[in-house]
Design brief:
By secondary structure, the protein is mainly alpha-helical. The protein contains three helices and two strands. The longest helix has 15 residues.
């Protein structure tokens, strides 16, 4: 069942270590010279919210074998879990002739 709402709280999974928030400009420069920082304008454009389709959180349980295959696909083919799940669900819904929803997530009955 999909949960609608804003993300909040600690979203890290148990047993996973958090990623460090280190940008490329923090990395040592080759040759040992000074590190050049990006302009304020470039940083501001990266901080602006991305516009795209509205997403909702979907929590579910899958077989351990399915999770292992999904992790392999993500690691070896550079997909994201979100994109794999979305494509798989879209294909299943299309196969069963489930009507499409509008950008607001509403299905208009025909």
């Amino acid at each position: 069942m999909a949960q609608v709402g804003k993300r909040g709280g600690n979203s890290a999974r148990p047993g996973e270590r958090g990623r460090t928030a280190r940008s490329r400009t923090d990395a040592p420069a080759s040759g040992g010279g000074p590190v050049v920082t990006a302009s304020t304008e470039a940083l501001t454009s990266k901080l602006e919210p991305r516009k795209g389709p509205v997403k909702v959180q979907l929590n579910t349980w899958v077989l351990a074998s399915t999770e292992a295959r999904l992790k392999w696909l993500v690691a070896n083919r550079k997909f994201t879990v979100t994109s794999v799940v979305d494509v798989a669900l879209q294909e299943l819904l299309d196969r069963y002739d489930v009507p499409s929803a509008d950008p607001d997530g509403q299905i208009r009955e025909q």
